[in-house]
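Ticket #4471: structure output looks truncated?

Reporter: J.K.
Steps to reproduce: submitted the chain below (261 residues) through the standard prediction queue, then opened the result file.
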Amino acid sequence: TAAAAAKSENGTVSNKNQPENQHGKKAATKASIDLSIELKENKTYNLSESTMKSLKILEKLLEDALLDIKQYANATISGKIKSNVAPLSSGLLEKKFLTATKSAINSLLIEGADIYLTEFSHATKGNIRRQNDFILEYASEWFNKLSKDIKTDTDSILSSDESITYKASMIQVKIERYRGRIQQFVDYIGHKTVNYGYLLTASYNQEGTVYIESDNGCGYCKAMADTRISTKFLSDYEEKALFYKMPPYHSNCKCQIRGGE
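Returned output as attached by the reporter:
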């Protein structure tokens, strides 16, 4: 896009086409633009080691829960246990999920703020965690939907009149699908929260606008390229509403938020 930074041969990113702002232009490094530390295969971020660890802890917690569900379901199918799937019957997993998610959100918001401060050295971070509870509520809704879907699917399989072999194979299919949803969520919440931390810092510093830097991955992203978002004098409600306008817009979307004028 016209405003997107163009990579040069030495690995830096040209900022010459980006708009002026109150802090002036500052060349961005390739690392701050490309988000290039591996999280999972085909999922990359340029995040600190501590933030990467918090995301991996979150993902492992959910994948371990899937393993528990699979084991319990198979035990039920074989007749060793006659009950619904136990791992989702208590609030313990949800508490662990929210604790791990809160830790990841804190780190991700700071990462987004630090990217902004790297680009605009005269800016200040401000209260970057002021929307923590709001993002956590968003994550909690996703978790509750996942839990409901898993329980519905599993109960349906376990209560069917199909053979033991068929039930076991269907449980495996469902588990793999939910594993994909978990990986997509971790990637999605990671990318979105970094962008949101960037926007909140811009808002705190009364940056006039930020813009969307498209990754040119699809027609929608190309259409969103260079879209301006006002960050001045935002109310609490307006800040929350902007969370839903932040990229990513789809799986593997790498669009980012960058400083405007």
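Triage note (M.O.): checked the attachment and the full token line is present. The longest strand covers residues 209-213.
Status: closed, working as intended.
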